[in-house]
Structure to design on (57 residues):
């Protein structure tokens, strides 16, 4: 997954940060590439609507 997919699901970088319990500036520092461990966390939080390790279609 990339940041665009995550924003589409959650609505904003701030909402991604809130879901992960981290500061929004940390999400901004990722650029387009979400760290792998965070991808897996987002997969769990999104109940598998987002998939870790998959490239955007």
């Amino acid at each position: 997954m990339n940041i665009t997919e995550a924003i589409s699901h959650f609505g904003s970088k701030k909402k991604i940060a809130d879901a992960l319990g981290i500061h929004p500036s940390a999400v901004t520092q990722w650029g387009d590439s979400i760290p792998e461990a965070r991808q897996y966390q987002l997969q769990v939080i999104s109940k598998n609507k987002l998939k870790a390790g998959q490239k955007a279609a």
